Structures are given as C-alpha cells and as structure tokens.
Amino acid sequence: MSDVTLTIDGRSVTVPAGTLVIRAAEKLGIYVPRFCDHPLLDPVGACRQCIVEVEGQRKPLTACTTTVADGMIVKTQMSSPMAADAQEGVLELLLINHPLDCPMCDKGGECPLQDQALAYGPDGSRFIDTKRRFTKPVAISPLVKLDRERCVLCARCTRFSEQIAGDPFIELLERGALEQVAIYEDEPYVSEFSGNVIQICPVGALTSSTFRFKARPFDMTTTVSTCNRCASGCTLLVQERRGDLVRILSGTNAQTQDEWICDKGRFGYAYSQSAERITEPLMRKGDSFVPISWAEAIATISDRVRGARDAREGLAAIGGAQLCDEDAYALSRFARVVLGTNDVDAWFGGASGADDAVLQQIAAGAPTAGFAEIDAAATIVVAGMDLREVSPIVHLRVRKAARNRGARIIEIGPRRSRLSEMGAEWIPTRPGGEASALEALQLEGSTVVLVGDQLRGDGSFASAWNLALERGWSFGWVPRKANARGALAAGCAPGVLPGGRSILDDAGRAEVQRLWNAPPPARAGRDGATILRDAANLEVLFILGADPVADAAGSVRAGAAVDAAAFVVAIDVLLTETARRADLILPATATYERAGTLTSWEGRRQPVRASVSPAGLAQDDRLILGQIAAELGHTSFPTTRAALSAELERLLAARTGEGARVELEARDADTSGLVLHVAPRLLDDGAMMHGSSALARTGSVPRIELNPADAAAAGIAEGDRAAIETVHGRATAEAVLDARVAPGVIVVPAQRAPLDGVDLINVNGRTSVKLSKVDA
C-alpha cells in the first residue's frame, strides 16, 4: 500500500493510503473530539462531533469516515472557525436531552462528554423546554443497566456486539427523535463480552450493575495487572477504593486482547473479598475446624513431614494451574528438595506418555503458536475445544482473522461452536477422533492448529503435534487453566524439572542440583490422578490452589481419595470441596493480593501486581512453603519473589527445546455406542465464581445436548427430561436437540450443578453412556 502526504493544521504528515483523517491527526498529536469513533470498530460517522474542514470541499466532513488523499489540506477545530463552530453546535444538540446528572452518574470524572463539553462546547444552552425522560435504569442483562436518556446514539455498543463479539442482541431501534438503544423483546442481551460495551460507552448510558454508585475515578487507585481466569493473559486495570476491590477494566494490549476482556475476567472478582474467605489457619477438630496460630500450623505440618520422610511414597503435592509462576516454582522446588519426591503435579498429564512427552518439549521451549501466528495464518484449525468457553479472547482473535482477512476456519470435535457464524467448517468427530480428522486434512498455505486439553489423555494431543511438525503447521496448546503452561515450565509435573528438563536425564538433574544445592530425586513421580488413586498410602498430601474433589475426572472418587490420605494440608483462598476434607487449612492470598508473573497459552510471561492487601492473615503460597521448609531445616529455601523469579529465569533461559516427533501408542478406535463429551464452561460453579451472582446468572442452564437422530432413537423430544448413565453414576436434565452435536455424542457441561459431567467421566474423557427418557 502506497503512502500519501497531507497537511493538517499547517503540519505535514505521511500515512498509508486508506488511513482515516482522524488517525492521521492522532499521528501528529492533534486530538479531534469524537464519540462514535473507536479504532477497533468500523467507522460510522454517527455523532458528527469530529467535523473538520477540508480545503476544496463544499461542506465540512467527519474525520472518522474520511480517508486521506495526497495533497489534502485539513483544518481541525484548532485552525478552522467553521469546524470549531460545527463541533460546538453538535455538543449543544447532544446536551438538549442529556440529563445534567454528572454528580450521580457513574461515568462522572471519566466522561468524554463532560470533557468535550468543557473544552469545545457552548457556554450555555438555548434549550428551555422539558428534557426527554425515560424509565431508568433498564436492566438489559444481569450485568448491564441502560439509562436511555444519556445515550448519544454513537452506536459503539451495537457495533462492538455485532462486529467484535458476534452477539447482535443489542441494537438501535426506532427512528428520529425516538431512536434508542434496546434489546429484542424475546432475546435478552446474553454475551460473554457484555462488559466491554460499558467500558466503551462514552456517556454513561450503559453502566455496570456491580459497580453502579460505588466509587468515583478520582477516589480509586488503579493497578495494571494480568488476568488469571483463563490462559489468554489479558492485561487488566484493577481498581480499589479504601482497600476494597471495586472494579476491573480492560487494559490496552495489542499483543493479547486489543482492548477487550471477557465478563469472567471483568466481573468475577467477588470471591477474593468474600465473607467466606479463609483468613487464618484452621485445624480439624472432629467435624469442624478451629483457628490456630501460624506457628502451631507450621509446627504441626513439619512434625507430620518428619514422621513420613522415610515412608515409601508417603509424601505428595498437587498444585493448581492458576498459581503464579513463582509460587508454582516454589512448589516444584519444595517437593523435590524438602519432601524428597517427584510426586508433584498441576494436572497437565494424562494416561498417555506420548502426550506428556509433548508437554515436556513445550516446557523445554519448543516453538509454539501465539496470537501473532493467528493474525497471519491463512487457515486456523481448532481441535478439541470450544474456544469461546475455554479462552474467550483467543476466540475473538480467530473471529477477527476470519472477519478482517477472510482466514479459513476449521473446527474439529464433537460439538460445533459459534465460530460457525464466521463461516467455520465443522468436521464432526466422536471424542478421540480429532487426530484422525486432522490427519485427513489437505491444507495449503500457512496453518495454525489450536489444540485444547480435551485431546490429552489418549495420544490425540501427541498425534496433532506430530502432524504439525510433519506438515509445517504451527501448533498451539490452549489450556483451560490460566497458568498451566507456566506451572509446567516451573516443574509442577512428575516427570519434568523446571525448564522442561527430564527427571530421568542426569545432565538436567545436575543443572538443577547446582542451583538448588540439593539433588532432585531420580525416580519418576506420579501424576495427580495416580497420587489420588494411591492416596491411602500417603502420610501427608499437600494441595495448593487446586480442588480435585470438584474438578478431577470422576471427582466423586477424588473425594474418597482425599479422605483416605492420612493427613491433608490444603492451602487455598476459599473453603473449597477439597479444603473441607483437609486436616489443616492455610489461608492463601488471592491473585489481586500478590505479585508475580503468569505465563499465557502462547508462552508470554506477564506481570501480576498486588492491588489490595491480603485478607486477614493470608500469605502467598511461596511464603507458606518457605516457612515449612525452614522449620524442616532448609533455611536457604528462597521465599522472596525476586529470588524465586531469578532462579526460574536462569533455568528457563537455558532451555533448548526445538520440537521433535514423539512415539505414538496404538489407539483403539471408538466407533460404536453413545459416548459422553463433558464440555468446559466459561461460567462454571468453580470456587473463583463464588459471590459473583450477577455474572453467574448470565451462564447457560445445564442441559443434556444430543443430536436429533440419537434423540429419536431413544424416543426423546425437545424439552423432555432425559437420563444419562455411566459406570460412575447417573444424572438427569432437560434434553436439547441440536444438530451442532455430532451423532453418537452426548454433551453435558463440566462443573455446572445440578448436571456436573465431571463426576461421570473417565480420566481420559472417553466414557460410554446410556441414554433414556425419564417418564413424567
């Protein structure tokens, strides 16, 4: 694309052809006032506030819709009386019906209309009649409230919903003086991204039901941090007032989310300041817990570890994949040096050694795909997940590639997702059949293959990895948990030391030993599922930031496993299902109370910064582990974030992963009978959704989804109550007939009461299921 040169307010600027005048002015540092304009939305020229004078034109033009031309001479309000007068007139018209309720409006203090009325508006108003009034507010969703009389019809919200999110449930209705933002009568505004319309609304017409009337911008402190609600790694603006977290906004980061975040990242923070937070150490006394001091708690744990140190396979640790890098590294080091075991896992492994071998290569620094590869790919293949439910911002980026560049999108899996709205091709498969479908693809041009966690466990994950290497595709692992990749790189896996070094590799162990001044055990460890299966032989089981009783496959059995361990130490924020079964509970800080780094799905390490003080006596996981280590005689165990980060950086810097094929194991074809597909939901019933009732109400109702042909064979009609039964249990719910479900597959949600499919599945997710109609 060629460049053109133009003049704006007497200053020359050169920009690419096709650039909008308003962007060219920004390049010179000239601000042209606007309301409807947004750099990530299609121009519409709705508000008329950005009027400029262009030499040779008969009338003024809107800078947000006019493209530059070579030799063009533009005068903004800074040098054109006509432009300044036009902008003043537009502001006067916008304020005719706009209520002057700035002292009570949530946008007050950060409102573009306030700012521009002061800078470019008239001194007074000639309007003396009664202003237009509406009933207020209108709850267009549990999270978003609309004050219609404030709206300036800029169409930012409607364009975002249609163009970016693909949720055209909010629209401008009526015409002329009656035109207003509204939702369809029988279709409420349901979107995983609805909070973005609040943030980009320039006048406070759309407000947050959870933030409304709580604080003013000048009365809050803002901290730039990173979201831990999925693996996208979005930049957040976390805002607190007098010690309370009151609002989260999206930051601007072109490398990750552009300017958008999902509603879970924006509204799902209530758990961190819940009245049910664990704020002091708790010891089990019979069926209840009693508070104890930190000193007593550390001494009790240390005595238990000392007593078990010589017991064969008596110590183990399970960590959550949402811990910061430094805390995950501290756990990895603690398990190997203090507990003397490689039985430490953060739920990455599965039943397939080939899949684990791929994860080890990723931990060792093998190149993988990221947002940049999505932005450039001719074809994007999504296998084994619904991106919108697993990593919403990755979904938006794939959607953007299809919309803006015409990228070809292919989905492979048991259920079609909403990428179909962008013309995505769907290859239906039964669970475990994704690898065969991938192998059959004949693709030309640059290709990115995005693979989800549900391919792991039977070699499908590794098969996709091998195909990508053979055919020159870019392979991307998009885990469900926020820091799965960071915890893996930190060594929170039974066969992997920090930096992806194999526990069985003498040279790798020697490298780590030189840094730790202690040798890591050479015996291969057990993964999380095996640790739970063998829990009856455990003397002490540490569980940090994980809830296997609710989250593990066959979680009903996980509960019995935790009960079977002799002594369970839970380090967590809330009293989770797992923590309720522990013998000793230690209070951990929430993400908003600690500092560290998180590693996104693409391997990008980004900062987490403390925004509020810890609740009660809560401490970071690394500090808790350090105190136990010191009590057990490991006084050199690092506890500061700086020290842990420096060690981890040193081990990661030496990584030499290049990516190599792995040996695949024979797989049994699964072609008969009904199988269960348990689909993760963005808005589930996990502990970190605790207290976010408005957010939870926007989630889908748990139902049994099945293909119409399978429903007909079972005599089930739409809306009937159906029952599903596996070797692990039985569940009933309303049946939904959906052609987007592959034949032979029954789809149920994970961690969504009362229909929690996690309780019904095998470890690798391949589970036969019986379907029947429940008689009234």
Polypeptide structure, described:
The protein has about 775 residues and is α/β, with parallel strands linked by helices. It has five domains: about 5-95, Ubiquitin-like (UB roll) (Roll), CATH 3.10.20; about 130-275, Alpha-Beta Plaits (2-Layer Sandwich); about 295-350 and about 485-655, Rossmann fold (3-Layer(aba) Sandwich); about 355-480, Dimethylsulfoxide Reductase, domain 2 (3-Layer(aba) Sandwich), CATH 3.40.228; about 675-775, Beta Barrel (Barwin-like endoglucanases). The protein is built from 23 helices and 36 strands. It has a seven-stranded mixed beta sheet, with helices on one face. A seven-stranded mixed beta sheet has the order 35-30-34-31-33-32-36. It starts with a strand and ends with a strand.
* Strand percentage: 15-25%
Query: How much helicity do the residues have?
Result: 25-40%
**What is the spatial order of strands in the main beta sheet?**
15-14-27-26-25-16-17
Count of all domains? 5
CATH architecture of the largest domain: 3-Layer(aba) Sandwich
Whole-number radius of gyration? Answer: 28 Å
Number of DSSP E strands: 36
Number of H- or I-type helical stretches: 23
Q: What structural category characterises the helix and strand content?
A: alpha/beta
Distance between the termini: 67 Å
